[in-house]
Every structure is written in C-alpha cells, then in structure tokens.
Amino acid sequence: MKLIKGLISLFVLLFVLGGAVAGGGWLWFQHELSKPGPSAEQHLFLVEPGETLGGVAQRLEDEGIISDDRLFKLKAKLDGTELAIKTGEFELEPRASLSEVMETLIDGKSVFYKITLPEGRTTAQLLKMVEADPVLIGDMPEEEVAEGSLLPDTYLFHRGTSRADLIGRMQKAQADLLDELWPRRAEDLPIASKEEAVILASVVEKETGIAGERPQIAGLFITRLKRGMRLESDPTIIYGVSKGEPLYNKSGQRRTLYRSEINRKTDWNTYQIDGLPKTPICNPGRDAIAAVLNPEETGHIFFVADGKGGHLFAKTLAEHNKNVAAYRRYERQEIQRERTGQ
C-alpha cells in the first residue's frame, strides 16, 4: 500500500513539474511574441503574390524586423493563420513586436500609391505618364489604346500593380461613368451614341480649363449642331495637325495656328467639316462628359477668349464681333505693358 501511494505521489509530482515547465514555456513564448522588435526604423515590407509563409518569415528576420522566423511560423501554426497573410506592401512601425508584425500582415491595410492623370490630355500623353511611373510594374499593353477611351482622375494602387491593369481600370471607369450618365441625358440632344458624347466632351474639355464654363460651352456647341452650324473649334484643327501636341515654330517657340492649317481639311478640323470630329481629340473628364449630356440652354452660338483664362459669349454675330474687338484691345494693352515693363 505504501509503495502504491509513493508511486502516485511521484506521478503527481512529475505531472505538476511538467505543467510548470509547460506553463513556463508558454509564458516565455508569449513574452517573445509581445516584446519590442529589433528594428528601430519604420519599414515598408512587400509580400509578393504566391509567396509562402516560410519565405515571408525568413525575409522578416533577414531584414531585422523580427528576431526569430521560427517563432513567427509557430505562432501562425498555432493561430491557424498560415494562409491568412495578404499580398501587398505594408508599413511596419519601429520596434513592432512579432505579434504586431503578424497582425499588420493579416489585418492591416497595405500602402497605397497614387497617380494623377489630368483632363484634356491625349491618350499618348497619358500613356507616357503611366509608363514613367516608378511604382507601377510591367510593360505597356501591346494593343492600341483608343483616343479618348480613358477617364482622367487620381487613381490609387498597390505596389505590384501592372501598367496594363491600371490602364484597364481607366477604361472601365469611363465606361462605368457613361453607363451612369447616358440614361439621364437631356432630351433632343444631337448626339446619337456614348461615343459621340465623348467626342464632343473632348472638344469642350480642350476649349476651357474653367469648370464653370463647361456647361456653357457644351450648350453652345449643342446649339450649333442643332442649327447645322460647324463647331469651328481651334483645338480640333491642332489635333488634325499634330495629334494634340503643342505647335512650335522653327525657333522652337510656341505658336498659334497658321492660316494654311485653318484652311486644311482633315477628319478633325471643324472649320472645314460638318458635325463632330472623327475621334475624340483628348480624354475628357467626368465634368465635361456630364456637361455635354446635360448642357446649359443659353442660346449662345459664339465665344472668344477674354484674355484672362475665360471666354466671352454671344448670341449674335454683332455681339460676337464686339467681344472680339474687346479681346483685341486687351491683347494690345498687355503687349504694351510687356514692352514698357509696367
């Protein structure tokens, strides 16, 4: 009997000691997970598509973000989160603990980058901006991107986004916008399709950089189309000459249109052709497209620059001629000021 009791006591003692050892090991493990990490600097850490947990853990240790990749993998195993780490680029704070690093890679939001693509640029000009972005990856698409098919905007993206994917997003954004605005367009527009809406919006976009003028200019062009008048828009001439690139003289200075270019018939020169140009002349923004589909009804059919960034509008040729004369006077005054240094 004494022997049996002694064996039971020994078993209990070993069990207690084992539990104590196990408990101490668990407490040590939790301490290792929660203690500040070795890196005193903020890190941007990229998890590549298809990268394994082991690869991520090893790189975290190699870059001095965590002390032991084995603890990282063990925690993931115990938590059942081996496949939960996201793809993307993550911002890891200085001295981040192993638990905080794992939480960021699983639940955190990856870093966004942005590219701003302005309204009124040709497709070739926007594609050059996309190609030059240092964060985007991959080659430019081999297939031709149609003029006017991109929606200018500021786009957010993760590191690892391809140039082809971003261009696809821009095309989809324009298609989605047209799907939204087309059913709500004004009645009796002389525009037969979404494509024609984009063409006219591109002309409106190039005519003014002032947001408040777009509905007026859109209304003016709509009125001219309804009356069978030509649009007579200078940017359409320029597109027919240089595909929208600035015009320069032989000395490399910016120049205005030559009379021969105004008289030259192209598929875009709206001084020489009826109706709309053959294609858009740039990529219009959402405001220009919205203005074309719901223009202001002002009755204006003429406009001229006012020399201050805006335009003067007129309903009659006589009124328009007065506005042109006013603009010429303003031009002469500005030239005189430049000459006198006032």
Automatic annotation (TrEMBL):
Pfam families named among the record's database cross-references: YceG
InterPro entries, sorted: MLTG-like (IPR003770)
Keyword set includes Ion transport: no
Transmembrane helix as UniProt keyword: yes
EC number(s) given by UniProt: 4.2.2.29
Major enzyme class: lyase
Gene3D superfamilies xref list: Classic Zinc Finger, Endolytic murein transglycosylase
Coiled-coil blocks: none
Site feature Important for catalytic activity, where: E207
Record field: catalytic activity: a peptidoglycan chain = a peptidoglycan chain with N-acetyl-1,6-anhydromuramyl-[peptide] at the reducing end + a peptidoglycan chain with N-acetylglucosamine at the non-reducing end
Swiss-Prot/TrEMBL keywords: Cell inner membrane, Cell membrane, Cell wall biogenesis/degradation, Lyase, Membrane, Transmembrane, Transmembrane helix
Gene Ontology biological process terms in this record: cell wall organization; peptidoglycan biosynthetic process
Example of a GO cellular component annotation carried by this entry: plasma membrane
GO molecular function: lytic endotransglycosylase activity
PANTHER family in alphabetical order: ENDOLYTIC MUREIN TRANSGLYCOSYLASE (PTHR30518)
Function: Functions as a peptidoglycan terminase that cleaves nascent peptidoglycan strands endolytically to terminate their elongation.
Family: Belongs to the transglycosylase MltG family.
Stated name of the protein: Endolytic murein transglycosylase
Gene: mltG
